[in-house]
Amino acid sequence: xxxxxxxxxIGTYWQMATKNEKNALNKIARLGCILCRTAFGVQDSPAxxxxxxxFGQPRSASDxxxxxxxxxxxxxxxxxxxxxGFEAKWKVTQDTLLEKVHELLKL
Length: 107
Hints:
Helices cover 49% and strands 17% of the residues. The chain has helices at 3-6, 19-29, 34-40, 69-73, 78-90, 94-105, and strands spanning 7-10, 13-16, 48-52, 63-67. It is globular and about 35 Å long.
């Protein structure tokens, strides 16, 4: 079992994720990269979970976007380019991607 499936970070420490939290995170990850799906029609790319924080909100309260390693941590990703650079390069906002995630999860 991976750490993703066992622990979540709350503030500056890690705690065991509940069964419901693990199920919710796995459901999001199984969507595949939301940018690959939206921009290129690729529906089965592996996904990491990107915590999308607004206005300094804590990570534990943040929304989550499933992104492939390149679009998450790579040079063309949100951490490589920063939020503004990522949104400018891909011509899509994280809010728009989050709406797509919610639509796919039927939230």
